[in-house]
Amino acid sequence: MSLVLVYLAGLGAVSGRWLARQHLAAKPWLSAGPLLSRPAAGGSESAARLGLGAFLAVVGLLFALLVAAYGMRVPPGSAGLPLDPRLLWLTTGFLGLASLLLHRAERAAHRGADEDARANLLAAAAASLVFLGGQGLAWRLIWEAGAGRTVDAAGSFFVLITLLHGLHLAGGLAALARIACGAARTGSPAGLVRSIGLCTLYWDALLVIWLVAFGILFRTPWSGLIDVLCRPPA
Amino acid sequence: MVDTPIGAAGPLPGSEPDEAELYHPHSWLTRYVFSQDAKVIAIQYSGTALAIGLVALVLSWLIRLQLGFPGLFPFLGPAEYYQIITMHGMIMVVYLLTAVFLGGFGNYLIPLMIGARDMVFPYVNMLSYWIYLLAVLVLVASFFAPGGPTGAGWTLYPPQAILSGTPGQEWGIVLMLASLILFIIGFTMGGVNYVVTVLQARAPGMTLMRMPLTIWGIFTATVLALLAFPALFVGAVMMLLDRLLGTSFFMPMIIEAGQRLHYGGGTPILFQHLFWFFGHPEVYIVALPAFGIVSDLISTHARKNIFGYRMMVWAIIAIGGLSFVVWAHHMYVSGMNPYFGFFFATTTLIIAVPTAIKVYNWVLTLWRGDIHLTVPMLFAIAFIVTFLNGGLTGLFLGNVVVDVPLSDTLFVVAHFHMVMGVAPILVIFGGIYHWYPKVTGRMLDERLGLLHFWVTFLGAYLIFFPMHYLGLLGVPRRYFETTGLGFIPASAASLNAFISVVAFVVGAAQVVFVANLIRSLRHGVPAGGNPWHATTLEWQTPDTPPRHGNWGARLPVVYRWPYDYSVPGAAEDFVPQNQPAHAAGAAS
């Protein structure tokens, strides 16, 4: 559970830094009247961003728990998965591309370049669908090879993690479709910059989560670091 | 939010309603059923939770029938007994207590107490309730499924939870896990809402350190729940896959009835870690809102400012943080590295420090206060005593050497029920008696309330004090039948019968409460806007019950903290939070 505790410590540090600026040492019984609290600039925009941030913190913890469970359950000498990792490198590339395209869509929407923003949104959605298709194919290959129910459980974790990650991305795609429809209806995505920005944040987070999951399920350059955090001490 | 001096603030921001963001219902259906108004959602949450809680109450009667009078009731066999204790525990902890405190009190009180018009995401808030209702219905469906509900015990430990010897192995466990997954999805929607609303939608002047402790408790408990429930979610999904797809996340190699099952390599201990990583914070998910509500009740009904407000806030935050590093004290008997046992025993003792600070502060708030022994106040005082009792036995059990012999006895059941069952339920009752006048505009009948309080309070002690003694005698928990066991004296059976009789009486007393709730809707004394002369914002609404949007044309402005009671020189013995200094006379 070290990874989970590190994750929680990170959240605690962010929260603690924020709390430190909230005058928690104030003596409110002495301060009738003089202090007014006002919302930070942005109003509902910052509420939406904060809401998404809180949700992503929960999602991040969910996957941290899964990775920690992997470390406790799958033996270090696991035979690995009967799957060519190049397929997953390819799907990872598409997820990264989707994230990149959303950043471009956000910038285009900021500039007011409607057509450009819309094209980037659609391309990001297409890249995400390709990612999901690739993950589905890998899922099927693993399951058909019988690796989903092996004693070392690496395949079971692959099935579970990709399933949950894919469901989260599918939810994001539904939101993206709603934004695209909104853009089509209003004729300009510029008014929806906020929504595109939220999608961008969501996709970035799902990309990071996938990279961590990928790092523990297959040998990658960053697998060693994740192993240190999620394997119990010998 | 940033705090600025009033002179630099200019015109007060946000004091006009933002029509674009306030949802308005257009039909009876969207006003009362698929409502996006947090107050209606709160009542829906509370009604559903109390209804399923009554089911759990009836289940507890059945448990007591068996324990008090074993063998007398042929419809209670071992399988039924285990199914009943499982459903009783899970319903009470998750579907009643969590839902009432966060879904019920949270939805009703957060917008009103911080001076907001509603939750910031009303549609998501509505979805949260309907998913919760679906979770409850799925759980209830397991009573009618082939094989009945699961009998795995409320901790659902694998491997036995999904093996064929356990009642409800076919459908019951699947429905239980599905229900928990739904509950967590629904709660996450609501929880994100509560957090963002507290952080973003406070009225002008409502700094964090001017929030009532009820809001601090609910807010911190929500953060805890958002971070604890994912562990249960992961455990439930993994066990569901073990059960349905034949994976072996938790299932070791098992030979059942002479046949080797296809499972192998799984670690049941992994589930225990996941379960208790949720399970211990769950204690505080229930306790922190209770702490907050009790603080407000005793301050209001003792007409005295809360003692050590800052320390109370810090203690809530400290308890929230520490609650994530004590989970393994539930697993001493599962076997662990002795150093881990030492670590978790130490953290368990440390968490008693901020908790004790709260108890001292409550007592010092009462000290020389103008105590009004109203029904809510009685429940609040009863909570302090009960939580103290339950907490002290928790210190025993937090130590490895004491826990090991007591772990599987009724001592644990008694401790747990005092601290996690009786104590928070006393607060729920106190909170309902306190805020019912705001919700309905009428007072609850006081005589019926007193009857309800004394029977419940004294009865709970008559049930659970002797149960500690039974535990010390070595009477095991979870056993269907203990007669004939040589190490248990015959007197234990008499005591068990006595406890059962009292439990029936206490259970029946809850009918008085429900009758009072219903009767007072029409026949209660009109309450007016602020019957308790309280300072917090929910009592200052222009209408009682508050209308949609809560505040009429203008949002309130907050000028002071929520505990200005008996202020020297003030015109009355309380100064509402939204009253400017010049209007309060010489106040503060």
Automatic annotation (TrEMBL), chain A:
Write the signal peptide boundaries. none
Q: How does it sit in the membrane?
A: Multi-pass membrane protein
**Transmembrane residues, as ranges?**
50-71, 83-102, 122-143, 155-180, 200-218
What are the protein's GO molecular function terms?
cytochrome-c oxidase activity
Q: What is its main location?
A: membrane
Localization annotation: Cell membrane; Membrane
Entry GO CC:
plasma membrane
Q: Which UniProt keywords apply?
A: Membrane, Transmembrane, Transmembrane helix
Q: Which GO terms describe its biological process?
A: aerobic electron transport chain
Q: Which residues form the Heme-copper oxidase subunit III family profile domain?
A: 49-222
Family (UniProt): Belongs to the cytochrome c oxidase subunit 3 family.
What protein am I looking at? Cytochrome C oxidase
Q: Which organism is it from?
A: Methylobacterium tarhaniae
TrEMBL record, chain B:
Residue ranges of the TM segments: 40-63, 83-110, 122-145, 173-196, 216-241, 283-299, 311-333, 339-363, 375-398, 410-436, 448-467, 487-513
Name all Cytochrome oxidase subunit I profile domain ranges. Answer: 22-559
Q: What is its main location?
A: membrane
**Which UniProt keywords are present, listed alphabetically?**
Electron transport, Heme, Iron, Membrane, Metal-binding, Respiratory chain, Transmembrane, Transmembrane helix, Transport
PROSITE patterns per UniProt? COX1 (PS50855), COX1_CUB (PS00077)
Annotated membrane topology is: Multi-pass membrane protein
What Gene Ontology cellular-component terms does the record carry?
Answer: membrane
Q: Which family does it belong to?
A: Belongs to the heme-copper respiratory oxidase family.
Name-wise, this protein is: Cytochrome C oxidase
